Amino acid sequence: MSGIAKTPKPPYYAVIFSNQRTEGDYGYGKMAVKMVELASQQQGFLGVESVRDDELGITVSYWDSLDAIQCWKENTAHKIAQDKGKTEWYKNFALRISKVERDNYFEM
């Protein structure tokens, strides 16, 4: 999960997941990798960007439609990860869905 996602010409959607972790890994790292691999196989997935420091994690995934986002939300393995997030991994989190209507990309 490194680098800037190469997204298509808008419009498309961004799911912004901001969170603060609990202490300890409890399988979080392995599951995070698995979720990116699984999401990337979902129809409508466009890319992902993720950063984490000691205090805050932010993951932005990009999708071609609200239907694709809903399908990802309902994915069985993703639901298991969501439940573990609520019971073991996160002190708190916020999930926001936005429609991207304009973007710019620069590369040197």
Automatic annotation (TrEMBL):
Keyword Membrane recorded: no
Enzyme class: oxidoreductase
Domain named ABM: residues: 32-83
Assigned keywords, A-Z: Monooxygenase, Oxidoreductase
This enzyme's EC code(s): 1.14.-.-
Domain of life: Bacteria
Any one GO molecular-function label of the UniProt entry: monooxygenase activity
Protein name as annotated: Antibiotic biosynthesis monooxygenase
